[in-house]
Fold these 4 entries.
Entry 1:
Amino acid sequence: MKKLSSVFIFLFSVLTTLQAQKVKEHGLMLEDYEYPYPVSFYHFNAQQHEYKMAYMYIQPKNDNGKTVTLLHGKNFNGAYWETTIDALTKEGFNVLVPDQMGFGKSSKPEYFQYTFQQLAENTKGLIDSLGIKKTTILGHSMGGMLATRFSLMYPDVTKNLVLVNPIGLEDWKLKVPYQSVNDWYKNEIGKTYEDIKSYQKESYYAGEWNEDYAKWAKLLAGWTINKDYDRIAWNAALTYDMVFTQPVVYEFSEISVPTLLIIGTRDRTALGKNLVSKEVKAGMGLYDQLGKTTQKKIPNAKLVEIPNTGHLPHIEVFEKFIHPLLDYLKK
């Protein structure tokens, strides 16, 4: 029995070492993680508390007078826009890249009512503080839901709306049993790198899994071994609740600004797929259909489909993503 116990302890030690080699611990505000461009902070008051919003604002020497604001997805932060920033600034665009509340280097509140309206208001405050009068609003994944809400609230500030594999193109409440914030928290608190990787592979985030995707999964996993992970997990649970309970799909017809949809058609991202039957699951997150359906709902929207591409076109097939984007922005 002692021998078996020793073997178990040894194997556990090996597995723990391998996990540690794979994942590096990160601080609550990613203090130890360097972004591709200098980070500044916008300080503001919301819900009777002071918060700060991290952002990168890149102004090229060959300024063409136009600004693009890039909004990240739920499992990411502004740093994953690096190649997009490089390409846009090369063409003379000013680029604003915020980390939303609860994400990246921005505040992780203990108590906060997350709404897309609140995040849009925060983002508008940042834009105003920089003296930007009009900007293209580009949102990926959850950022697409936020970008949609922003364009509905602030059409005079929104020059164009660009949605890159946005979530929220369907109402998951119609198919998925309700999950409380506590439920989302319990699901989040036990996550490991392998769990994150498995979810992203199942949703076809990527083609063949490689370091281009793994680096972002490892960044998330680096929080799971932080002593303050309960705070991060709680914020993640609150934003899951926001995404699940605040659909924008019913308001696409109200969008009044020029809109471009860039859709990787292999994507199968959908919130709550693990909570439904195989039959229901098979009908969720079908981006090869959702892109076309959404284009019909948004007045005068343009659709660019990228075949055999998953949830991250700007990482998986950058050239196929950036060329139609630049063509659209230069018109």
Entry 2:
Amino acid sequence: MTVTLRFAPSPTGRIHIGNARTALFNWLFARKAGGRFILRFDDTDSARSTREFADEIERDLEWLGIEPDEIIRQSDRTDAHDRAAAFLREKGLLYPCYETPEELERRRKIRLSRRLPPVYGREALKLSEADRKRLEEEGRSPHWRFLLPNFKDDPHQPERTDVTWDDVVRGPQTVDLASMSDPVLIREDGTYLYTLPSVVDDIDTKVTHIIRGDDHVTNTGAQIALFEALGAQVPAFGHHNLLTATSGEGLSKRKGALSIASLREDGLEPMAVASLAVLIGASGSVEACSSMKALEERFEPSASSRSAAKFDPEELRMLSRQLVQQKPFDAVEQRLAELGITGAKAKPFWQAICGNIEKIEDAAEWWVIVEQGPSEDTPLDKADQDFVRQAFDLLPEEPWTENVWKEWTSRVKTETGRKGKQLFKPLRIALTGREWGPELSDLLPLLGREGTLARRP
């Protein structure tokens, strides 16, 4: 059987770096196994799901380098979900419940006061047909629960029932079904919660492995029971540790925290985002991988820590900066062209400035400085103007070689007696309008003698 994994976001907001971590774990696992990767939109919540968010998620994944083999939408598969629900009802494994949220909360508190686990007591199973009819005549609509197989003969006498699996991230795991309430699969309005459509779609698309956040570990026990109730082979499960903000707060799509779209709009490199999303919280070092293939080679799901990992945006910026500064011209030529950086100067220009920028878009500022003149960031100190004018009078004649900066500054040093910072800083400000930047020995040939003289104060 072909190894098949999926990423199943709800299109109710923008995905953040924590969601991207899950997507990348599944994508890389599929790639390493030579398998398939499915993007499945869990869009059964019609009130909050939008096609706009779905399109943005596709765009975010494409930017990260994730290419699905198939894209499906749960909203197109309602018939399959209905058939599964009917099958479970027929087997007596899906039963109607009429309690209000207030009634359920009151029962939960009573159980806690009696030092009992706060699980649903299956009171609805005791209702007669006449009871259900009366409740519906009163205007109540049922929600439907899946009857967990945690008893021998009497569902009102649950007993310890261990569900075990060998987690591809965490190793051997055990969940006791008796510690859980029967999960609600269908709401009062007839719409499905996450669990049933997810399991049905995993079965129909032949998903072999499911990797997700470790906040789903307990849910996995109930879902394994549901797979078995539907007569399906149970996939392998994996649960990676979660990412939090540096404050320790969980990430949220609704808050837009660290969304992939915002990271893209900030000009960060996609492989920096992907590298940090995958490698953070693992046993090895976090390094910026230059390609998805390189990240695939580093990827080892079982190396993930069991504790949450704090995501630091500053670390992401550092990784992105490293990637930018290491990029050869061929890798950025198209992006530079989109910024208007073209022609014979483009390659030596990139080689001159790449070590001094954080984002490729920053190259545009230096291109303006080279082509049009100094920026106005730092004015030349009046005390240095006479020195700079004298220095410009000492410019070597053409042709200029790669040694022109050394030749020029040697002359200036001899004639003026200045050296070190007192010599170099005023010249840098006069040429670029900045106190820092690329090596002037690299910039000077790009400016040319005429272009350099044009900057004489």
Entry 3:
Amino acid sequence: MATRTTSRSKGKNTPTFECSECGWQTVKWVGRCPECQSWGTVQEKGQVTARTTAASNLAAPAQAIGDVDASVAEFRATGIGELDRVLGGGLVPGAVILLAGEPGVGKSTLLLQVASAVAKAHTDHPVLYLTGEESAAQVKKRAERIEAMSDSLYLAAESDLGQALGQIEQISPQLTIMDSVQTLSSAEVDGAAGGVTQIREVTASMIEAAKRRNMATILVGHVTKDGNIAGPRMLEHLVDVVCQFEGDRHSRLRLLRAVKNRYGPTDDVGCFDLNEGGLTSLADPSGLFVSALTDRVPGTCITITLEGRRPLTAEVQALVAESPASQPRRAVSGLDSPRVSMLLAVLQRRARLATLFKSETYVATVGGVKITEPAADLSIALAVASAALEKPLPNRFVAFGEVGLAGEVRPVPGLQRRLQEAQRLGFTHAIVPRGAEKSDIPEGMRVREIGSLPEAMGLLLDGGPAQASQN
């Protein structure tokens, strides 16, 4: 008896399924998306369409690279210094920027100030602010509070993509801000606003309009509870620049980072101060992260941390107190808790600080700054040791270096920039890892190189504050 076989023809259409959360696609239905681990989000999207044929008439024929006019892609300053710093010089005509951040961090306030500054600088070219989350009256009240009014700034409360594109065609702005991309939807596409299909359509339409009109565009994006940008990952690939706006609700400091930038670097950070009058650029924010104490107090140490290419001064404070409990408490704020626990273990074993076994230890930064780089290890260890031994560290002194489990102090990148920033702020003494070049040490700065944590403690806590020598 012959075996019956079935085969699919080469051109036969097969059903396609897509996850409504992340956009992952498959040829068969599954209950749980393997990409985002969401249940019940994989839905059928119809049949595979035919292949697109080549166009017979080209709207924009290819040019030789030497004939392309590059002047249209030059940076234009926004008037917000810290934003221009992160973007690499300003806005590029035709660029599409995605700005993401947690709710209440100040995204809308920043962009309203940007819209006003650009409108005031170029009164002959209007700026369009599209809001899908607030009414035009609400946006105007905020603009009056932060003094962001301008006759060349236009507001429109739109949640329909077709209406938003119509506003752009009518006003012909030099800059369009859409707050936010998750609130707009197209009537010609299935799905609710904020879904994968709608976000893809909204983003693609705005990018097409921006490139065709040489119009700078800023899209506001929501974030998930994990801090990732909501919507399909493709959203970040489509835009030219992706920026993250960060900040603690209980702190006035706000940080702007570029995680993707086709026109500039991604290793810089912009600092802002959030107050009643809006956001103020902080060209020199180091004073926010250092306490105002003038007397030497045990348990404090200054370090220089690098946020991208930008050196920032930060102060680490530690408090060590006897505990009646069998398991002493250890609390950390502004630092990586597992790394602080590791440094406490190194201090106990390598530096012979046995009192830490039965003492409560509290370690925190000043001003709400968050430090994650290993270069702050040495300052954390010295602050804890100073608090445990009740011996203050010297004035006008900084320390930075990575501490290993064997107690060794390893070199850190950007040594010259750290020392130059310390000297600019009036610090005269520094402890750095061994191996520094002579050219890295600024003239007049007394720098001492060390190779281990016990060596640093013996130099500062036992030998006195002013025994650092010029290398």
Entry 4:
Amino acid sequence: MTKKNSLRQDTKDFQSPIAGRSISQIVTSFGGFLATCAAMYLVNGVSFWLALALAPLAAGFLVRIFIIQHDCGHMAFFRDRRANDALGFACSLLTLAPYRSWRRQHAGHHGVWNDLDRRDRGADIYSSCLTVAEYRALPSWRRAWYRTTRHPIVANVLIPPVVFIGLFRLPFDTPKAWRQERRAVFVTDLALVAMFGGLGLLLGFGAVAAVQLPVMISASIIGVFLFSVQHRGDTVVWARHKAWDSVSASLQGSTYLRLPRVLQWFTGNIGYHHIHHLNPRIPNYRLKECHEAMPALRTVPTLSLRDGFRALRSILWDEEHGRMVTTRQADTPAASGDRA
């Protein structure tokens, strides 16, 4: 057995779900979210701004619910597939990300991340990039479009709410051959209409919009930031398919986002993204345990929260110098040779 295969094999000691911890996470995540939303509805009648002040807390719980959905999609939260799928669907009614189609597309991401020759399969603007040579070969208007759509404000603030609230209501990027996944999108939509319609009739549609929209907008921005930053930064490595392997891509093509303990709790330990890619079957609540038990997993690209915000601008792969760079570096003649 090679050293790389041995490393992956060793992580299997941590991939078994622990029923008590899974149930505890459900209670704290759903309970915290529902309690915070209830408080928002109560105070909204007194002051919209007071309700709005609670939106970040509710969004934090919603991000944690999305991490549970994410684990269910990898069959990591429970041992039983039906239990994972049932809980994943329940999560999707709050996260607005249709479970079955999202699960299959996300599985595609796990098969191609940081593989330069497979960027057309299961990749998106948050987990893919152009090379510097490809970017420089584009006409000026397409370079401007690339810069604009991947600017941190556009990609990480403006687009996420549009995707979660609007685009996810249609199978906009679900292949036609995925018939079950496409049907599941509309089943999710019908359930959402029933749920929010009933809530609107009970509490008033204006109140529902005043509470749920700020929470969903905040949660989508936070969630997309967490996903995109895990594959960014000038220490992240991309490779051509012949040189690509999943273990190296896990340890060099994704990062460890070191977060304060409270943020680590709300984000379900997703900062240990290198371990998640190495073994997606590890439940989120065991990622830290795995990280601390295996020294080889602690020698990966590490980002602080401040580093993470800076890393959002690293959107091009410089094959010549073997590192991620910004478009400003690529547009400068000496560009890729000097660090910004």
